[in-house]
Structure formats: C-alpha cells, structure tokens
Amino acid sequence: MYRKKIPDLSTDQDLLLNMCAAVSHGTCPEEVAQRKPGPVVQSRWLTTVTRILRNYMSCPRPSPQLQHLAGFAMKVYSPMWFAIKAAPTIANGSLHLWNMIERSRYLPQDQRECVQKVIQHNAYFAHPEKPPY
Questions:
Q1: What does the angle CA 66 – CA 19 – CA 23 come to, to the nearest 5 degrees?
Q2: What backbone phi and psi angles, to 5 degrees, belong to 12?
Q3: What span, in angstroms and rounded, lies between the C-alpha atoms of 104 and 64?
Q4: C-alpha neighbours within 13 Å on the C-beta side of residue 60
Q5: Hey, is 14 helix, strand or coil?
Q6: Fewer CB within 10 A of the end CB, N or C, for the chain?
Q7: Contact 80, 99 (CB under 8 A)
Q8: Residue 1: pLDDT above 50?
Q9: What's the rounded Cα separation, in Å, for the pair 82 and 9?
C-alpha cells in the first residue's frame, strides 16, 4: 500500500485515497497503478473520480478539461468525501456545508453556479433552527 491501510474504508474509498496521495506527491507506486477501480455506475461517483485521477496521471499532457476535473477532484470532491466519512452525523452537516462553500470558491463563476445548486439543495444544514443532533 502507498500508505497505511485504514480499516473502515471500502476498496473504492481506499483506492481514491491512494490516488489522491499519488497525485499530490507527483508519483504513483506500482501497487497503486495496478489496482483497478470498480465499474462506472451513475450512482457510484467515487469510481468515476478515481478513473478521472487515473486518467490524469497517465496523460503526459492532460487537456485543460481533464486538468480542471482532476483539480476539482483533489480540491473539493475527495476532501469533502473523506470529511463526511470521518464525521457523518447530522450535527456536522453545517460544517460540511461551509467547507463545501469554502472549497468551491476557486471555481470560475459559471462552474460555481453549478455547484451552488448542490449547496442550495443542502442548505437546510445552515438553518439556525436546525437541531444539533
């Protein structure tokens, strides 16, 4: 393994964490490069993000679109996935919502508007009368 195995992670989650580490370090160990992500399914965004990162690492000159997708995966999607995995209770919902807003600020205006739809969908976490449980 590229890093110590975390027991609560599924195979797909562990692969995503290893891929993120490989992208951030700029090198991909052979055991990580040889692992296969699960099939791409509409409901399994985790494998889609893993495949995007794998594609990004394998391209000598990634396109601007691929760079943008990999950047979003590294700056927003993956950190939010693991933050929610680490603190999954509803009491942490407002913190996760705030982190999503903070992490997506780097996006250009048109893409930020797309992300804001998701944020607005989850805005009930920001309501001041939300019970803390």
A1: 60
A2: -65, -40
A3: 18
A4: 0
A5: helix
A6: C
A7: yes
A8: no
A9: 10
- pLDDT computed for residue 42 by the predictor: 64
**Would the pTM count as exceeding 0.85?**
no
In the numeric block, the tokens 């979003």 are attached to 72
Could you tell me if residue 33 is inside a domain? yes
Per-residue pLDDT band at 114 (split at 50, 70, 90):
confident
Please count the other Cβ atoms lying within 10 Å of the Cβ belonging to residue 70.
21
Residue 1 lies inside a defined structural domain of this protein: no
Q: Report the number of distinct structural domains present in the chain.
A: 1
At 7, list the tokens.
């027991």
131 or 121, greater pLDDT: 121
Mean confidence (pLDDT) of the chain: 83
Q: Is residue 27 part of a domain?
A: yes
